[in-house]
Amino acid sequence: MKKIFALLVSVFCIGSAMAFGGGDKVINKSQLPAQAQNFLNENFAGVKISYAKQETDFLERSYEVVLADGTKLEFSREGNWKEVDCRYGEVPA
Predict the structure, then answer these.
(1) Which of 63, 69, 72, 87 is the most exposed place for a label (fewest CB within 10 A)?
(2) For 9-19, how does the pLDDT look when each residue is reduced to its tens digit (9 = 90+)?
(3) Across residues 31-53, what is the average pLDDT?
């Protein structure tokens, strides 16, 4: 009976950690990885950042940046771009 109870408590704790452990945190440009900052400076130099956030999942961290012109960018933990979505314009060459 003690083993079953211990197993149920363990499952509950792990489930809670997975459900509430991750989250999003609003950050500023200087808190982005250096590679992401360089990418923004080279390709979107004249566009202001509306917001940037750090997304933390169970084992993965990524970054999302939304620019004032509606462009949405996603970066990996290292700062490599994963996705660029220009809703109202074109993706720079």
Answers:
(1) 87
(2) 766 666 655 55
(3) 92
